[in-house]
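Task: sequence design from structure.
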């Protein structure tokens, strides 16, 4: 998007004359691109959106930020669609106290050696 400006009506995909492509011609180009990229046959254009969303979730981005990036009207829409990909509270909290205590003990030990 940084290299090319959106086409008519703000669309990102246009044909050579910057018009909205016909669905059939886009499909032909998409299948060719999938093959050249070595993606599995049957990969849909919409699969890129799910890949993008799952990558943002795996990077632990704030869910509200993900909602905005995907253009969802509500956070509920984001969680209803991708909620199963977010780590649950148990996953997020597991080891947090142990890591904090370990860090604090190491700092105390370092401070005693310096004193």
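Answer:
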């Amino acid at each position: 998007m940084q290299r090319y400006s959106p086409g008519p009506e703000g669309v990102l995909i246009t044909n050579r004359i910057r018009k909205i492509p016909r669905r059939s011609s886009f499909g032909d180009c998409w299948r060719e691109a999938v093959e050249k990229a070595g993606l599995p046959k049957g990969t849909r254009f919409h699969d890129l959106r799910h890949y993008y969303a799952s990558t943002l979730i795996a990077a632990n981005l704030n869910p509200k930020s993900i909602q905005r990036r995907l253009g969802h009207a509500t956070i509920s829409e984001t969680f209803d669609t991708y909620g199963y990909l977010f780590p649950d509270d148990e996953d997020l909290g597991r080891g947090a106290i142990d890591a904090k205590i370990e860090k604090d003990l190491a700092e105390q030990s370092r401070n005693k050696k310096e004193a």
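The chain is about 60% helix and 0% strand.
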